[in-house]
Amino acid sequence: MDKLEIVDEYYKYVAKIPTGLQHIADSLRADNVQTALNEILNFSEGITWIKQMEEILMEQGVNMDLNKHQLEDYLNLINEGLEKQDFVLVADIFEYEVMPYFEQIIS
Fold this sequence. Notes:
By secondary structure, the chain is mainly α. It is built from 4 helices and no strands. Helix 1 (about 5-30) runs antiparallel to helix 4 and helix 3 packs antiparallel against helix 4.
């Protein structure tokens, strides 16, 4: 996969994230916790893929400007909410913090 293909795949994937995050938040609010947890796992795996692609692109001189520290902070907040089983809080984090973060990357 060359640099342009990686960039294209990266942006295609990132563009889909806000819709998925809204679905997670909606699932949590509808008390469809198992579905939401599965989607959160998929989101987590997707973030790992994004980080790997960013490393490859950085090696090729392309900077995607993902704020990894901010993303880690969000993931920590989500984990804390999940540990407390505060699904309303987790839904709010996804909808009002993580989703705008990715919408900003897309724009």
